[in-house]
Specification:
By secondary structure, the protein is of the alpha/beta class. It has a single domain, classed as 3-Layer(aba) Sandwich (Rossmann fold). Strand 5, helix 3 and strand 6 form a beta-alpha-beta unit. Helix 3 runs parallel beside helix 4.
Length: about 120
């Protein structure tokens, strides 16, 4: 699936969201919200991020996101991809540094769509 098609989806989850304004997990979460997307922050480390309830994992979300934006290392990403596939979430947006051969093989094996690009660049 191309970048444009994924950007047409409205409900996103940012895996690796953070309160730290200097981190990509924070910039991406804020930028998606600013652009009018419905965005859920995912991180086991926070209760709230920028005033929004933060969720521990994809399974605890109140609705199924159409796209997951990955801002975590491939080591953590593997479990997220497995969980996404189980929940029927098909679209994975991989930020630079979040993917490797193992992650790409897993995405292909599960039949998911993936885009490898920086969302901050695409939303400019």
């Amino acid at each position: 699936m191309e970048v444009e098609k994924m950007l047409e989806k409205n409900v996103w989850a940012v895996v690796g969201a953070t309160e730290n304004p200097e981190k990509y997990g924070n910039s991406i979460f804020k930028k998606l919200k600013l652009k009018g997307y419905k965005v859920y922050p995912i991180s086991p480390n926070y209760e709230m991020i920028n005033g929004d309830k933060c969720y521990k994992n994809l399974s605890s979300l109140p609705e199924k996101p159409e796209v997951i934006n990955m801002v975590v290392s491939p080591k953590i990403g593997k479990g997220i991809i497995e969980e996404a596939a189980k929940l029927g979430i098909d679209n994975i947006w991989l930020q630079p540094g979040t993917h490797n051969t193992e992650i790409m093989n897993l995405i292909n094996e599960k039949g998911l769509n993936a885009v490898k690009a920086c969302i901050l660049v695409e939303l400019k």
